[in-house]
Write a structure and sequence with these properties.
There is one protein chain. The protein has 390 residues and is of the alpha/beta class. The protein contains ten helices and 21 strands. It has an eight-stranded mixed beta sheet with strand order 7-6-15-16-17-14-18-21. A six-stranded mixed beta sheet has the order 9-3-2-13-20-19. Strands 1-12-11-10 form a four-stranded mixed beta sheet. The N and C termini lie far apart (43 Å).
């Protein structure tokens, strides 16, 4: 006996959970299948090493889902300015929320805090049934519906199944959707620090010859580091004791925030560019990292995923007399709506990664010159900001 739904979502991370909430707002009966148990704990005393910079568009979407209201504002830090430095002593690019007519460029939030708010929201919605922890064992896509079998013997059936299960998506693999993946031979090393000097809500980023270093503001005199660097250098950073890591990061950031002290140990995430040949098939759609991976230098990965969820939910809500959520031509509307945004972000981040991950002296001069020239063009800077905040 199958359990019947309008939509099945495989993957209960940030993007999948937000999509389930958005679909519930549209009255669709939704199943969400997640391998891990729900994260519902109150905010811990420590700080999550994995943080996200959410653009205003993502925050508006999460507000509409009813999730953002559940995040403790004391754990969220608005970013009002971003300063980007080249690998010489004089090249700088500054983005200001005030100059762009925005309240903020982004808001920094811990993954754990946002995930907990989303899960609490899901548990309060009768339209959503949660299967977690749960393991998928088989997928069958037929003309009229998709069937998903779970390891505990239960079987779920719906006109549409959505893959929100990350870059190594089980659902995408089962469907046989081809993936083009290119490792960057880089790793993102993350850690949190207490700072000697106040950050004043400014995000800092350095394009260095050994990678891209970002210090993102957290509430209080704290920052979160993301250092995207070659695998060998990342391994060295991962092996450093806290005191030595703090010294090296302070030096690499030109003592911009004074001395640093590690408050959350370092963690590492391998980086790659990943494209899929198809985001949709009849009865199936992909969102988030299951549909694309980008370099984190622009902080846009999760924002792209939220835009996927927002546009898929909007497409299903606007289906009109077409009652079939998994109709291929309906899902193609979603794919067309997302292709340009995803392709543009992949091109931009990949190009920047190639440009700055290069030892050429003349290219170093060119990219530093580009930073200085762009910094003098207010209209261009505001255009870039408006596109990024989505």
């Amino acid at each position: 006996m199958h359990m019947l739904f309008d939509v099945i979502i495989v993957g209960g991370g940030l993007v999948g959970s937000s999509l389930a909430l958005s679909l519930a707002n549209g009255g669709l009966k939704t199943a969400i299948v997640e391998a891990r148990a729900p994260q519902l704990a109150a905010h811990a005393a420590d700080w999550d090493s994995r943080i996200y910079a959410l653009g205003p568009g993502s925050i508006d979407y999460l507000n509409a889902c009813g999730a953002w209201q559940g995040v403790d504002s004391n754990r969220v830090m608005p970013v009002e300015d971003m300063r980007i430095f080249g690998d010489d002593a004089r090249s700088e690019l500054d983005f200001s929320a005030y100059d762009a007519g925005l309240r903020e460029l982004a808001a920094i939030v811990e993954s754990r805090a946002l995930q907990s708010a989303l899960w609490r929201g899901l548990q309060a919605r009768p339209e959503v049934e949660i299967f977690a922890p749960a393991s998928c064992t088989a997928l069958k896509i037929e003309a009229d519906a998709a069937t998903l079998d779970l390891a505990d013997g239960r079987s779920l059936r719906a006109p549409l199944i959505v893959g929100a299960d990350g870059g190594n998506s089980w659902l995408r693999t089962q469907a046989g959707i081809a993936v083009e993946a290119r490792p960057y031979a880089q790793t993102a090393v993350v850690a949190n620090f207490a700072t000697e000097q106040p950050h004043r809500g400014i995000a800092h980023q350095w394009f260095r010859r050994d990678g891209i270093l970002a210090l993102l503001p957290l509430p209080g005199e704290r920052v979160s580091m993301v250092w995207s660097t070659r695998d060998e250098h990342a391994a060295k950073l991962m092996g450093l004791p806290p005191e030595e890591l703090a010294v090296q990061v302070a030096a690499a950031s030109a003592q911009q925030l004074g001395g640093l002290r590690v408050i959350t140990p370092q963690a590492a995430f391998p980086l790659r560019l990943q494209r899929v040949r198809e985001m949709v098939r009849s009865r199936l759609a992909l969102v988030g990292d299951a549909a694309h991976n980008v370099h984190p230098l622009a902080g846009q990965g999760v924002n792209l995923g939220f835009r996927d969820a927002r546009d898929l939910a909007a497409t299903l809500a606007a289906r009109g007399a077409q009652n079939d959520c998994g109709d291929f031509y309906l899902l193609r509307r979603y794919e067309r709506a997302r292709r340009e945004d995803i392709a543009a972000m992949q091109f931009a981040t990949d190009t920047l990664q190639r440009l700055f991950n290069n030892e050429s002296a003349w290219l170093a001069r060119a990219r530093n010159f580009g930073l200085r020239v762009t910094n003098r063009q207010s209209a261009l800077k505001n255009f870039l900001v408006q596109h990024a905040v989505g």
